[in-house]
Specification:
By secondary structure, this protein is of the alpha/beta class. The chain has a single domain (about 1-65, about 80-140), classed as Rossmann fold (3-Layer(aba) Sandwich). The protein has five helices and five strands. Helix 3 runs parallel beside helix 4. It binds ligand CA2. Ligand CA2 binds near residues 18 and 100.
C-alpha cells in the first residue's frame, strides 16, 4: 500500500516560529515519526510539502494510479482553494484531511474547509499525532 502525505504552505516553518500555536516539532521530525510508524505497519509513504497551490494541484492529479490514499494537510489553502478541492474530486484517490490544530476552535475563517466535503474524513487538533492518526486511517481504507 502506498500513501502520499501532502503538506501545504508554511508547514515547512513548523517548529521554527509560533511554537505556541503549532508546537516545537519540525516537519522533518513529523516525517520521521510517520516513516517509523509506516514501517511498522508495512506500508510505503511519500512525504512532501509545497508552498504553491498549482504544485499541490499537480501532485494530487499525479497521485492517480500511483498512490492508494492521500493524507492532506493543505494548510491555509484549506480555507481558500477551490482548485485543490476540484483536484481531489477529479483524481478520485481517497483523501484524508488532517490538521495539527483544531480548526473548528479557531478563527471563523479557519472553521470552513473547502476540502472536507470531498475527503473521506477529517482529523484535526492532535498536533503531530494528527499525522499518525491520518496514517492509521489511510491504512484502514486499504482495499475499500
Ligand atoms: O492546523 C493546521 O494543521 C493548519 O493546516 C496549519 C496552517 C493553518 O493555516 C490552517 O488554518 C491550519 C498553518 C501552517 C503552518 O504555519 C506556520 C506559520 C508560522 C510558523 C509555523 C507554522
Amino acid at each position: 500500500m502506498k500513501i502520499l502525505f501532502l503538506n501545504g504552505p508554511n508547514l515547512n516553518l513548523l517548529g521554527t516560529r509560533e511554537p505556541g500555536v503549532y508546537g516545537q516539532t519540525t516537519l522533518a521530525q513529523i516525517e520521521a515519526l510517520v516513516r517509523d510508524r509506516a514501517a511498522k505497519l508495512g506500508v510505503t509513504v511519500e512525504f512532501t510539502q509545497s508552498n504553491h497551490e498549482g504544485e499541490l494541484v499537480t501532485l494530487i492529479q499525479q497521485a492517480r494510479g500511483k498512490y492508494d490514499v492521500i493524507v492532506l494537510n493543505s494548510g491555509a489553502y484549506t480555507h481558500t482553494s477551490v482548485a485543490i478541492r476540484d483536484a481531489i474530486a477529479a483524481t478520485g484517490v481517497p483523501t484524508i484531511e488532517i490538521h495539527l490544530s483544531n480548526i473548528h476552535a479557531r478563527e471563523e475563517f479557519r472553521q470552513h474547509s473547502f476540502m472536507a466535503a470531498v475527503c473521506v474524513g477529517q482529523i484535526c487538533g492532535f498536533g503531530p499525532n494528527s499525522y499518525l492518526l491520518g496514517l492509521e486511517a489511510a491504512v484502514s481504507l486499504n482495499g475499500k
